[in-house]
Write a structure and sequence with these properties.
Rossmann fold, 3 domains, 12 helices
Amino acid sequence: MSLVGFLKERVKEFGNKVFLREEKNSLTYREFDRATDRMAAGLQALGLEKGDHVAVLFPNSMDTLLSYFAIIKAGGTAIPINSLYTPREIAFILNDSEARFLLAGPQFRKAVEGIRPRVPGLRKALFREEEEPSILRTVARAASAGDSPREVDLAPRDKAIIFYTSGTLGAPKGVILTHGNFTFSGPNIAGCYGLRPDDITLAVLPLVHVFAVASPVLGSLSSGGTVVVMERFQAENVLRALADYRVTWFPGVPTMFNYLYQAREKGAYDVSSVRMGLSGGASLSVELLKNWEKLFRAEILEVYGLTESTGLVTANPVKGVRKAGSIGITVPHVQTRLVDPQGRDVEKGEVGEILFQGPNATPGYWKLPGLTAESIREGWVRTG
């Protein structure tokens, strides 16, 4: 199934429930589907064809998610660009990804116009105007189109999003994730975390990273939950959002949980709705985990994943034995191995590199066949 079909199925089941919410706006599942249909039709009217790459440059917002799904519905591949990138870094992503279109916020117009001469493949850039309520209005202004896009034949193996990961040893590399990667991972994540239709999560991690897209967005989409989108992390503001929106779970990184703990100690916030936090991206100290759980009266599940795994490889179980300081156990339908530098399985208790395979695994890196061959061997993805 494609992501388009996956969304349509969720709309049938949860159409009138709120899917996305931010400070002044909200969209039900049905409204989100219709809005992205109209945007997709507009993008097709502008000339977007199946397989075209479309870059997306916004701070965290509903515009980001509207853009991703509209691009995918139109048959394109979304290319997230970090809103903190310099003009030079933006130009690199646009050129390397071979993006033909760009959807961006008004604050990026000057930077993009300054690099346009260095990005010859960029056919059109659409900037939301300050007075426009959403990127949907921007696309409608640029192209006259109907309410529904032209149907595109999309298969599970087709590219959906290419996430660029920044490495310390070179230029960012594009990790390809397919429709099938996401339609598998969304329900798998929802099942692993025990997500329910009445759950409300907070998307404050940058939506240019797979952890933010796969866990709160695809996990909630799969379970019928609601996603509250926040532009940036600031501990007191996040605590207020947890209280105001009655958030039940949210993903974060250890530094976020540390700042929330410190702020919670100093102020009174009703966070009694929170039952679970997910910690990934780095090691969480056992001391912080225990102190946080005692103060918030909620669990932290430590999880492990990477862009190449569509966000999840292992997790501490919601039900069962949790081990503080551990990345948990392999999630369902995914296989893992520990190997030595020669690729041989290590004995129990020995140190090794994690390899994984499953429907969550990337098919490879954009325009890097050598790295793909080196990193994926006989279906097993190396994690380094």
